[in-house]
Amino acid sequence: MTTYDAIGNNYAQTRKSDPRIATALLEILKCSPASSVIDVGAGTGSYAIVLAEHGYRVLAIEPSAIMRNQAIPHAAIEWFAAFAESLPLANQSADAAIIMLAFHHCQDHQQALREIYRVVGDGQIVLFTYDPEKISEFWLTHYFPSLVADVRSTFLSIEKLKFEIKSITGAGAEVIPFPLPHNLTDSFAAVGWARPELYLDSAIRNGISSFSKFDLTELENGLFRLEEDLKTGEWNQQYGHLRQQQKYDVGYRFVFTAA
């Protein structure tokens, strides 16, 4: 069973593609429309749909049946029940690969990269990921302290990721920070950076894997403290300036090879 077989029943309701992320992805992706792109860890296909609607043929890789069953069918998307470490695709059968906030779920990062490289050859590899060095700066860790250790043990550092890409593919990787908009529509972990009330919604939390890892005591205590701080104005006193910002660099990054 994958993580999202356990928590992903309503994933498609909260994890919708964000148009700003989609625009950045399309600008970075250099292969022409009509090219074949593998979407590794495609989830419910929110970004696969974006590519398909822009003319790409998408090979969506997703091990969770619960996630695949929520996908909206599209003629340009072919689904595969598989893990990144063992792709059911022929050598050099795709032109590029995207991995959107999914690489940290791979059990073997190096094997996943080897498989992706085998399938795309010299094609472009684009990851949307998180810089774990930034996690201690995020106010959410004040309420859920174990988030720091979880993120640092789950996400590769950006330098480590670049090293792994270089050692396996021979290609250097570029890094572009992606400050999150205040009205993000893809409700991943930092969705509430300026809207803390979102974390009190169980539907939002259920689409964020980190919340499934907290023990019950930490989860209940953190939610209680956050709710109380919102009622008393303590959160606004400490972090209210964030509500005035249009964007905030929480730590998300596009890491990609040249076309």
Structure, explained:
This protein has one domain (3-257): Vaccinia Virus protein VP39 (Rossmann fold, 3-Layer(aba) Sandwich). It has helices at residues 3-7, 11-14, 19-28, 46-53, 65-68, 109-120, 140-143, 146-154, 158-169, 202-206, 209-213, 216-232, 234-239; strands spanning 36-40, 57-61, 77-80, 96-100, 124-130, 173-177, 180-181, 247-248, 252-257. The mean pLDDT is 94. It starts with a helix and ends with a strand. With 259 residues, the chain is an alpha/beta fold.
Short description:
The chain is α/β, with parallel strands linked by helices. The chain has 13 helices and 9 strands. Helix 6 links the parallel strand 4 (96-100) and strand 5.
The stretches of 5 or more residues where confidence is low (pLDDT under 50) are none
User: Strand percentage, roughly?
Assistant: 15-25%
- Spatial separation of the terminal alpha carbons: 35 Å
Largest sheet, order of strands side by side? 3-2-1-4-5-9-6
The chain-level mean pLDDT equals 94
CATH topology assignment: Rossmann fold
CATH architecture: 3-Layer(aba) Sandwich
Biggest beta sheet summary: 7 strands, mixed
Please, how many helices?
A: 13
The run of helices and strands is HHHEHEHEEHEHHHEEHHHHEE
- Helix fraction, binned, reads 25-40%
Report Rg.
Answer: 18 Å
- Principal-axis shape: globular
Spell out the key features of this protein.
259 residues; alpha/beta; Rossmann fold; globular
